Amino acid sequence: MANIKSAIKRAKTNEERRKRNASQKSAMRTAVKKFLTAVENQDKEQAQVLFGQATRSLDKAVTKGLIHKNAAARKKSRLAKKLNALA
To answer: What range does the record give for the signal peptide (predicted)?
Structure first.
């Protein structure tokens, strides 16, 4: 454990940020999984709604710095392909 006051504070803030990032990343993954489940069940209306939520959560993850913007763009593109395949 750190002895210097600034190092103690840094360790504490790092832990808080790690927990916050893990929570937000988990929420993002959950939104994507819900969409994929709706696609598997061939539920077009539900998939349409969940696609909006999934893309929004991916965009929020980019602004928070959780994932790279190109990674989010790639994931959104793949989700859109699945949605369009239902129609």
So the answer is: none
What global pTM score does this model have?
A: 0.87
Q: What is the DSSP letter of 65?
A: T
The pLDDT tens digits of the residues spanning 4-63 come to: 999 999 999 999 999 999 999 999 999 999 999 999 999 999 999 999 999 999 999 999
Separation CA 49–CA 39 (nearest Å) = 11
